[in-house]
Write a structure and sequence with these properties.
Elements lengths: L7 H17 L13 H35 L1 H6 L3 E4 L2 E6 L8 H8 L5 E7 L4 H5 L6 E4 L13 H9 L4 E7 L2 E7 L3 E4 L2 E5 L6 E3 L3 E5 H6 L3 H16 L16 H17 L7 H11 L2 H4 L7 H21 L14
The structure holds zinc ion.
The site of zinc ion has 5 residues, from helix 8 and helix 9.
């Protein structure tokens, strides 16, 4: 069964809703859900409000960290031809067909109705933030037709693409008033986006275009400098072209060599973005404690023990360069099979 979705944000909420249902009662023959009492219906709406806040909180953290990584490393990404423009905002398109359950919450928070585009996040310090765009602004005009073609729109990406052609002028509805904002100059960034995935699994991965990070890994690495090590690694997979699909559309499996390269280049990315890498190797120790199977390693992943040892060496190399005031450019590494 598929729900028609047009909003990535709502999509994430619905996916977790389905996952949660499955955890609670994944019986082979699903019985219809019992109707909620009026009190429970009210409580359900409140819980959805909490769930939305929780998602936005994590999305903000990930977007801020990710933005630091993709701006600081733009020169390295440019050498690989992997750059794009960024306004530094996320926007989602909602319509009333999306979900009856989530609509009251979205409507209460942002006035979501039929074909509404809402700014769901603004990265501090970005072009959008400097121009005065705020979360919750409803975009009534942005120079492209949205919502009428029936096709799914990735509004965030559309707007970033649009900004490459010149200043972007948005007509916004804010607290009932129309405001016009022009974002003059987008910023050049590494071509990778960051996506929160709802779920407890301690996991992060790269799909070539996005770095996907679960609640589980964000909770484990509550310090930004630790999470930045994971983001650096996954960003490196995207920029180095590791995460790609074969002719049949399947993801090409990783190899221990590619993982080692992503560890090395990724740690440079993290350091260049200004994060302390003093404790970076411990990130893999803590990962091993969560996933003991990684200690031995596999055909895809190197042993977390070798990773720790190798990371110590890379960390020392980077810190020596920092101390000597040398540029932080990773050494080219030969990776078979690329
Ligand atoms: Zn990896």
């Amino acid at each position: 069964m598929r729900t028609p979705l047009s909003s990535p944000l709502l999509g994430r909420l619905l996916r977790v809703l389905l996952a949660a249902l499955c955890l609670a009662a994944c019986a082979p023959a699903a019985k219809p859900r019992p109707e909620l009492t009026p009190e429970a219906t009210k409580e359900a709406e409140l819980q959805r409000e909490f769930a939305l806040e929780s998602l936005l909180e994590r999305q903000d953290r990930l977007n801020a960290l990710g933005y630091t990584m993709i701006t600081a490393n733009e020169p390295l990404c440019r050498q690989r031809g992997r750059v794009r423009k960024s306004l530094g905002l996320t926007a989602d398109y909602f319509n009333t067909r999306d979900s009856k359950e989530w609509l009251p919450v979205l409507s209460k928070k942002w006035g979501v109705g039929e074909n509404t585009i809402v700014v769901t996040g603004v990265v501090p310090g970005s072009a959008a933030a400097k121009a005065g765009v705020l979360r919750g602004d409803v975009i009534t005009s942005m120079g492209v037709k949205a919502g009428h073609t029936g096709k799914r729109l990735n509004v965030t990406q559309e707007m970033d693409d649009m900004s490459a052609k010149g200043p972007v002028t948005l007509k916004l509805l804010r607290a009932g008033k129309t405001v016009s904002v022009t974002i003059p100059a987008p910023v050049d960034v590494c071509d990778s986006r960051f996506v929160v995935r709802i779920g407890d699994a301690v996991n992060a991965y790269a799909d070539g275009k996005n770095v996907i990070v679960t609640y589980g890994i964000m909770n484990l690495y509550s310090k930004d400098e630790d999470l930045a090590v994971v983001l650096g690694h996954e960003l490196a997979h995207n920029i180095l072209g590791h995460a790609r699909k074969d002719e049949s559309g399947k993801m090409v499996p990783s190899t221990p060599e590619k993982e080692a390269e992503a560890d090395a280049v990724g740690l440079y990315f993290t350091a260049r973005a200004g994060f302390s890498i003093e404790n970076a190797p411990n990130v893999w120790r803590r990962m091993a404690a969560q996933n003991p199977a990684h200690i031995r390693g596999s055909l895809v992943h190197p042993s977390s023990a070798s990773r720790f040892v190798d990371m110590e060496a890379i960390k020392n190399e980077i810190m020596q360069r920092q101390a000597a005031g040398l540029p932080l450019i990773p050494k080219p590494r030969v990776v078979p099979g690329q």
